[in-house]
Amino acid sequence: MPELPEVEVTCRGMRPRLVGRTINKVRIFEKRLRLPVTDEIANAEGRKVVAIDRRAKFIIVSAGDDCWITIHLGMTGHIRFVEHDAPLQKHDHAVFCLSDGFEMRYNDPRRFGLIAWTVGDPRICLPMVAKMGPEPLSEEFSATVLWENLQRSKKKPIKTALMDNSVVVGVGNIYASETLFASGISPDRKAGDISLPEAEVLVANIKSILQKSIASGGTTIRDFSGADGKPGYYVRELSVYGHEGEPCLKCRNPIASAKHAGRSTYYCPHCQH
DNA sequence: AGTGGCACCTGTGTGC
DNA sequence: TGCACACAGGTGCCAC
Questions:
Q1: Which of A15, A28, A143, A234 is most buried, by CB atoms within 10 Å?
Q2: Considering A25, A200, A263, A269, which one is annotated as catalytic?
Q3: How many angstroms separate the CA atoms of A188 and A169, rounded?
Q4: Alpha-helical regions (H) of chain A
Q5: Per-residue DSSP letters for A243-254?
Q6: Could you tell me which of A112, A5, A176, A123 has the C-alpha nearest to residue A167?
Q7: Nearest CA to A239 among A260, A215, A209, A261?
Q8: Is the CB of A154 under 7 A from strand B?
Q9: How far: A174 CA to C10 C1' (Å)?
Q10: Helix (H) / strand (E) containing A37
């Protein structure tokens, strides 16, 4: 489901519902996520949530005293807040009972997500999180940084390189296609052949497209919804993703599709070089 | 060392 | 209607 905008939208939805509440009880119905949920998650009981942050596509919940809960939504995960007596849904794998009578429920049909408990900031002590590349919406993510990172995977197609978390985080399959279209760059170009001025254009488009998507509540293809249950409306703004055969918004020639590293890519052969 | 391919899962849509 | 198959928003690991 979620790329960076969807995770950011989820975080923003969680903050007013979770921060300041005490987690009274944790119930795990299915431990077999991407990494098994450990029994340590029960240590969250009795703790009050202090803050919620995002790093790449990880949701990082601070529970005070250097105790942390890290949540990843995988491809199909989502978070909902419901009254404690609301019926459980299929694939509700974890339930956090809160002091205000509501429950935060983690639902993930494909179970590619994860829920981890750590003592110590996950951005330091969870290797999966610690080794992530630059945040696209941060100041540090500049044309120079992108260009330098692209040199490390210079033989990859640029589309695949943009989805590599060591190059930049948060750009998944949808936004890789969208940012390349906006930049007029072919997905087949080798990452190492992207010039600094082109990197400049890419950085600007990555930032603006991700920001616009966040403002629209993210992109709902099939089943994404934010923590408030609302779908993302950015799907209406997508220029190429899922639009194979339809006329390009710039030149009216048909949008094409291709595969890069097994993932679908959409692009305009006429506008992107 | 960088790269492509596969694996992990369930659900949905399509074509026969 | 049923079945087989392809495909889906992510990412770690495994051979080459």
A1: A234
A2: A263
A3: 20
A4: 4-18, 122-125, 127-130, 143-152, 158-162, 173-183, 196-215
A5: -TTSBPTTT-SB
A6: A176
A7: A209
A8: yes
A9: 12
A10: none
